[in-house]
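A.,

Following up on our hallway conversation. Structure tokens first:
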């Protein structure tokens, strides 16, 4: 009895195995074609062409015979596309594989956020087809407790974008649910989180899903190829995000808010290496800032130089001393002097300065005006980068890179003396410009194009 039952079970299992093999093969083929479709979507958004459009239509609308006929050409085009951008893939490792799914998956960019970004782009392209997304306009700020005719459409968009769970399509009331959703929306767009729909928030609500998909695609390309070419330990500052990250051997060691240059005094995009850390830096005022910022203050108040703890030097390097009235009078004409602000409380550079070689004379530093880090728009400096968690960064560098650790310890109580510290090895620093990305929680993040670079972004520049 046992033997007869066992034989029957084995027979059934064999039948199931042979019957499911074609099904599994079909599923693998479908998965391979889907991966190709998602990759082609990237190319269509970034570098549209007639050939790419034909490939996309063949993969999405064509019969299976047409899909199979186009596969080899499409694989070759995708491999060339990613390679031309410097985006690493596993394509060469699977070159001789006879498994189509493995070959296609090997074409995908080697980036931990590729799948999440691809899924988000696919969803946004779908969302773009689901309803009208024409521009909304309001002559007033929309706030909780009031009724507005725009609310049903705004709520529909917030729900579609993932910031609102449920809404009443007939309700015009700006209630707590709407306010909380607006706050979530503002948070992931780098806006002031107040739950009020003003011009800046409404402008982002008006951005079409297809435009959002384009922003995610182009920024993913630029970010991925940039990160593929740098060392595992570095400091990176994303200018439009006003954020700093310290990466230590591939792991995030520190994150901090930063203040960057104003639109008319932009922080430059560059790569360099931090070679020195300075405690209690003095500030040698650049001539441009002296002319534009400081002299107007001296013209109003000749005592500004003394009050600001500045030393004044002539062209021969000799210190110059004058009365407040004399400084005020001199500030109205050609001012043949240079200013150096002494270290200490109130110094513009604060407690720490991080020096890296560059032709723009910018660096990272502390600031005496900590309140500015609470601003949503932190494009407020004259080009240098001010760091919120500056002490944490300085202490990390002291523990990991500073050579003379004993002097570092001795300097902790000192506030007036300037001390430069050399590093055992320089730390790479990268100032970049990425306005859209998918974060580690698979949430799409967008930031204002503060320097108006999105219109000029291309695949030829780093």
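Then the amino acids I'd put at each of the 462 positions:
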């Amino acid at each position: 009895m046992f033997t007869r039952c066992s034989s029957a079970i084995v027979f059934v299992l064999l039948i199931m195995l042979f019957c499911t093999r074609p099904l599994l093969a079909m599923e693998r083929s479908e998965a391979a074609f889907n991966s190709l479709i998602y990759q082609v979507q990237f190319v269509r958004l970034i570098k549209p062409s007639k050939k790419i459009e034909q490939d996309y239509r063949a993969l999405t609308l064509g019969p299976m015979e047409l899909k199979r006929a186009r596969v080899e050409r499409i694989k070759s085009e995708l491999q060339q596309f990613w390679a031309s951008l410097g985006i690493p893939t596993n394509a060469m490792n699977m070159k001789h594989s006879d498994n189509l799914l493995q070959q296609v998956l090997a074409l995908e960019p080697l980036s931990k956020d590729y799948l999440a970004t691809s899924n988000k782009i696919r969803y946004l392209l779908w969302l773009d087809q689901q309803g009208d997304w024409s521009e909304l306009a309001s002559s007033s700020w929309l706030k909780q407790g009031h009724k507005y005719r725009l609310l049903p459409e705004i709520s529909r968009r917030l729900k579609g974008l993932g910031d609102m769970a449920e809404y009443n399509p007939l309700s015009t009331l700006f209630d707590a649910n709407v306010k909380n959703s607006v706050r979530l929306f503002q948070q992931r767009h780098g806006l002031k989180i107040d739950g009020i729909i003003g011009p800046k928030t409404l402008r982002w609500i008006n951005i079409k899903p297809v435009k959002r998909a384009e922003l995610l695609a182009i920024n993913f390309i630029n970010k991925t190829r940039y990160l593929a070419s740098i060392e595992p330990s570095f400091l990176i500052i994303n200018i439009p995000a006003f954020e700093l990250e310290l990466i230590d051997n591939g792991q995030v060691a520190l994150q901090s808010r930063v203040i960057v240059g104003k639109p008319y005094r932009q922080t430059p995009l560059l790569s360099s290496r931090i070679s020195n850390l300075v405690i209690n830096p003095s500030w040698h005022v650049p001539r441009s800032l002296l002319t534009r910022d400081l002299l107007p203050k001296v013209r109003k108040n000749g005592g500004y130089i003394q009050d600001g703890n500045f030393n004044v030097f002539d062209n021969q390097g000799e210190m110059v001393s004058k009365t407040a009235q004399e400084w005020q009078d001199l500030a109205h004409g050609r001012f043949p002097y240079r200013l150096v602000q002494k270290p200490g409380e109130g110094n513009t550079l604060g407690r720490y300065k991080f020096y890296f070689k560059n032709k723009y004379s910018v660096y990272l530093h502390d600031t005496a005006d900590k309140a500015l880090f609470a601003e949503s728009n932190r494009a407020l400096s004259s080009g240098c980068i001010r760091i919120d968690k500056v002490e944490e960064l300085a202490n990390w560098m002291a523990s990991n890179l500073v050579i003379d650790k004993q002097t570092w310890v001795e300097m902790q109580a000192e506030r007036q003396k300037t001390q430069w510290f050399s590093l055992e090895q320089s730390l790479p620093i990268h100032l970049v410009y990425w306005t859209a990305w998918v974060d580690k929680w698979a949430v799409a993040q967008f930031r204002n194009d503060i320097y108006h670079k999105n219109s000029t972004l291309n695949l030829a520049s780093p």
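The chain has a mean pLDDT of 91. Curious whether your intuition agrees with the design.

B.
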